[in-house]
């Protein structure tokens, strides 16, 4: 108990309170939107197999790819239909979330699933 | 009320702690918010996982009687023998070990919505601040149909293998009858996929007689191009598709299916009964007072029931009009999880949630098709609406899609259960 109080003094108290606020406050922007990619691309973008991994890709890469997909929908590409579901602003949020979530620790206590993207299939222009 | 106070207390103690006058301990003494989930299918498992992953301060209890979930997704490939049961059996261990979900191996039998307590078959009383119902579907009785003899296999598990037995026992040149219930039902393309795989299986074993498809709907409900093409070309010699055909009763002692067009003799049958929200949803009064309502009305921003507060309904039981698929159940679970987390933080739900669905359907033993759609919240009507240009079926079945089907399923399974 004493220890807790001690740690609550000064700057560390502020840090702890900020952490508490983060845990109870607004979810990070883009998190809910980005989670809708996970059915195919894995929890937090860590695909388990057979699909492209999104975690750690750059914001620019993800954004450009999705914008291109929805601009030129190929009928045989399921991903192009998915991309068409989102506004440019939503795509920006999703891309930013994947680009940063791997680097900044979120409120999660879990480690990302280990897994290998066995097939890094490009769904863009091939 | 209770949880509202709890929330206020949380906020108040946070504010006091910020002022430096009260140790954070006061906060810690307030118990963690409690979410109770009933049903560990695609909806309930995803909800439990994501609430814990996104905010481990919230306590999550999952009530589910079965030790593992048997997925309907890919289950038609167990019917044909292409996959074993292990490929569609998903364990709950990871929800506990990795995310700290409390598992209660029991069946929920009652809900006291006033005092916010769930009772179980074994007599446990489990209190909640927020309750999430994800019990899947229930069926209308079809007169004369004994599902122990003629399994519908529209919930996967022992019935999946029993249906395989039905298929395996069809004599050469025999007639297999399957029926499709009126929409909306679980998995719009599912019955047509099953018809194709029944036919494919009989053809490959050189036992093909006829597969008569009795559809209560006036046309193919999903992927009309794909399935009409398959019925008219690939399976022209086997499948006989009959729209507007309703099964009125079954007399299996005489191997006869009675329909609005008269009786049909069959050697094997798969009658898929009309569907509605899971039993507990109905028992808890969540369908409201209109007896024609079959699915729980909810607010699509949070999936909270519009009839009883603090009870949320996700997955096949909810009635937003979005397709009843596992992919969609997972999608809704995340919207609900986010809304619950915001609720405990004293915030309103995300005002613009998005959901999506994808179904891969094997058409033959080597090819598959897909169906997809993205939904967005329409603030003007308060409804989830398909985004233009996103509802589509694959132009043609292919081997590539068949391969992608497993990549998709593996990721969906993992995102929901591990
Ligand atoms: C042949 C077939 C093919 C399909 N193919 C696809 C596909 O390609 N893609 C796709 O996305 N979807 C597909 N689906 C649909 C998908 O299976 C369902 O939409 C999905 O399972 C719905 O999830 P759910 O969590 O709402 O219900 P369920 O998965 O049915 O889970 C409900 C759970 O609740 C539990 N439960 C029920 N009552 C209680 C109670 N009283 N107490 C405790 N627990 C309880 C049950 O034991 C069960 O585990 C298919 C379905 C079928 C039949």
Can you offer a commentary on this structure?
- The complex is a heterodimer of chains A (126) and B (418).
- Chain A is mainly alpha-helical and 126 residues long.
- Chain A has a domain at 29-104: Orthogonal Bundle (Cytochrome Bc1 Complex, Chain D, domain 2).
- Chain A is 50% helix and 0% strand.
- In chain A, helix 5 packs antiparallel against helix 7.
- The longest helix of chain A has 15 residues, at 10-24.
- Chain A is globular.
- The relative contact order of chain A is 0.18.
- Chain B is α/β, with parallel strands linked by helices and 418 residues long.
- Chain B has 2 domains: 4-138 and 275-353, FAD/NAD(P)-binding domain; 142-270, FAD/NAD(P)-binding domain.
- In chain B, 30% of the residues lie in helices and 26% in strands.
- In chain B, the strands form 8 sheets. A 5-stranded parallel beta sheet of chain B has the order 5-2-1-9-21, covered by helices on one side. In chain B, strands 13-12-11-17 form a 4-stranded parallel beta sheet, with helices on one face.
- In chain B, helix 3 (42-54) packs parallel to helix 10.
- Chain B is globular and about 70 Å long.
- The two termini of chain B are 34 Å apart.
- Chains A and B meet through helix 2, helix 3, helix 4 and helix 6 of A and helix 1, helix 3, helix 10, strand 22 and strand 23 of B.
- Flavin-adenine dinucleotide binds next to helix 3, helix 4, helix 7, helix 10 and strand 22 of chain B.
């Amino acid at each position: 108990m004493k220890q807790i109080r001690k740690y609550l003094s000064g700057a560390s108290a502020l840090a702890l309170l900020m952490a508490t606020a983060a845990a109870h406050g607004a979810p990070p922007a883009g998190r809910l939107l980005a989670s809708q990619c996970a059915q195919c691309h894995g929890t937090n973008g860590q695909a388990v197999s057979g699909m492209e991994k999104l975690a750690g890709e750059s914001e620019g890469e993800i954004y450009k790819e999705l914008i291109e997909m929805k601009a030129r929908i190929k009928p045989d590409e399921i991903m192009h239909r998915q991309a068409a579901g989102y506004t440019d602003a939503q795509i920006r949020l999703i891309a930013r979330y994947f680009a940063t979530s791997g680097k900044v620790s979120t409120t999660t206590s879990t480690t990302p699933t280990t897994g290998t993207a066995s097939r890094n299939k490009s769904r863009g222009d091939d | 009320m209770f949880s509202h106070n709890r929330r206020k207390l949380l906020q108040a103690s946070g504010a006091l702690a910020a002022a430096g006058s009260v140790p954070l301990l006061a906060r810690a003494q307030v118990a963690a918010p409690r979410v109770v989930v009933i049903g560990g299918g695609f909806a309930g498992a995803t909800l439990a996982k994501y609430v814990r992953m996104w905010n481990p301060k919230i306590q999550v209890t999952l009530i589910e009687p079965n030790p593992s979930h048997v997925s309907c997704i890919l289950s038609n490939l167990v019917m044909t023998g292409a996959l074993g049961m292990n490929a569609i059996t998903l364990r709950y261990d990871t929800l506990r070990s990795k995310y700290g979900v409390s598992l209660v191996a029991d069946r929920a039998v009652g809900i006291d919505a006033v005092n916010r307590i769930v009772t179980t078959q074994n007599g446990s009383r489990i209190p909640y601040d927020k309750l999430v119902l994800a019990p899947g579907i229930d069926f209308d009785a079809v007169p004369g149909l004994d599902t122990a003899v003629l399994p519908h296999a529209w919930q996967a598990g022992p019935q999946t293998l029993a249906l395989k037995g039905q298929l395996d026992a069809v004599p050469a040149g025999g007639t297999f009858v399957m029926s499709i219930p009126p929409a909306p039902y679980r998995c719009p393309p599912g019955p047509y996929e099953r018809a194709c795989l029944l036919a494919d299986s009989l053809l490959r074993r050189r036992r093909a007689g006829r597969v008569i498809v009795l559809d209560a709907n006036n046309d193919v409900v999903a992927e009309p191009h794909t399935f009409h093409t398959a019925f008219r070309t690939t399976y022209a010699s086997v499948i006989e598709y009959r729209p507007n055909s309703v099964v009125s009763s079954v007399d299996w002692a005489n191997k006869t299916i009675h329909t609005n067009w008269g009786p049909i003799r069959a050697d094997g049958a798969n009658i898929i009964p009309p569907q509605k929200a899971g039993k507990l949803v109905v028992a808890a009064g969540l369908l409201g007072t209109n007896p024609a309502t079959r699915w729980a009305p909810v607010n699509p921003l949070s999936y909270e029931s519009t009839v009883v507060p603090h009870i949320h309904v996700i997955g096949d039981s909810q009635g937003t009009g979005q397709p009843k698929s596992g992919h969609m159940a997972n999608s809704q679970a995340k919207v609900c999880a986010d809304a619950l987390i915001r609720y405990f933080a004293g915030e309103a739900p995300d005002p613009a949630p998005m959901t999506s669905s994808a179904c891969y359907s094997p058409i033959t033993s080597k090819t598959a098709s897909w169906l997809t759609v993205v939904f967005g919240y329409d603030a003007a009507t308060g409804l989830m609406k398909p985004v233009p240009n996103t509802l589509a079926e694959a132009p043609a079945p292919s081997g590539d899609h068949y391969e992608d089907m497993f990549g998709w399923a593996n990721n969906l399974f993992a995102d929901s259960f591990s």
